[in-house]
Specification:
By secondary structure, the chain is α/β, with parallel strands linked by helices. It has one domain: Isochorismatase-like (Rossmann fold, 3-Layer(aba) Sandwich), CATH 3.40.50. The longest helix has 13 residues. Helix content is about 30%, strand content about 20%. The mean pLDDT is about 90. The protein is globular and about 40 Å long. A seven-stranded parallel β-sheet has the order 3-4-2-1-5-6-7.
Length: about 190
């Protein structure tokens, strides 16, 4: 079964305490994220890529501004063979998908890319559970393919909202899993 992993917004501004929009405890999921990325045949890593005056900053503090340290991914989550979308995907194991909104599907390159890849299964993890991860999993469910959310490799700002999202996700046909289960069953 062809599987594509989704590493959602594991960026320095979100996953480390010094980050501009730190998700408390997010640094604890980095070892699982790094291992999932290493084991994947293909990873799509979403990344906020905001301009200095991005409209999102009316709602959220400045974070993940282009070419700042906070916008980057921790080195442990990066693979040697990667490219930033848009790019050719042949021979690449990690595609970096830049976005300026919560929803990774706001990047017009994502839907055509998914159609080209022809995955049958998506495995999703990262931050923030009830925001960007939510957008990713519900967008992926619209493809009609199997979507798994790695519950121990996501982190929320609001645990109650995250639990509600988990319930909505499973009610919509999504599956909750763990990093251990994914790593045991394999990435393909």
């Amino acid at each position: 079964m062809k599987t594509v992993f989704f590493d959602v917004d594991t960026q320095i501004d979100f996953v480390y305490p010094a980050g501009a929009l730190y998700v408390p405890g997010a640094e604890r999921i980095l070892p699982a994220v790094a291992e999932l990325n290493r084991r994947a045949q293909l990873v799509i890593s979403t990344m906020d890529a905001h301009s200095e005056d991005d409209p999102e900053f009316k709602t959220y503090p400045h974070h993940c501004v282009l070419v700042t340290t906070g916008q980057q991914k921790p080195a442990s989550t990066l693979l040697d063979q990667r490219a930033t979308i848009p790019a050719a995907s042949e021979g690449i194991r990690q595609l970096i998908l830049e976005k300026q909104k919560l929803d990774c599907f706001s990047n017009p390159n994502l839907r055509p890319l998914l159609a080209k890849l022809g995955a049958e299964r998506y495995v999703v993890y990262g931050v923030v559970t009830e925001l960007c991860v939510r957008c990713a999993v519900f967008g992926l469910l619209e493809t009609g393919k199997r979507v798994e959310l790695v519950a121990d490799a996501v982190k929320a700002l609001d645990e109650e909202a995250a639990q509600k999202m988990f319930a909505e996700f499973t009610a919509a046909g999504g599956l909750l899993t763990t990093a251990g289960e994914v790593l045991v069953t394999g990435s393909t």
